[in-house]
Amino acid sequence: MLNDRASIWILAALLTALSSLPARAAEDAALLKDLTSVIALLGLPCGQVVSARRLKDDDHVATCKDGNRYRVFINAQGKVVAQKQ
Question: What pLDDT does residue 14 have?
């Protein structure tokens, strides 16, 4: 299993890649899947992300199938964070 530091770097790279995706249907599906993975890796309840809104680079609001909403972003310390909304 990856250590915490490696996991943070992987998640940061994933969110950076997510922020550069154009808003097309196939890529939107990939974004939802990636956000679902990030939220699951952080150990938060979600199930599946069904919609997402980009706030800015590395900053999204994800809405889950179970009704939970999370702001997923990279904080000032470079850590990936998901805050319940």
Answer: 72
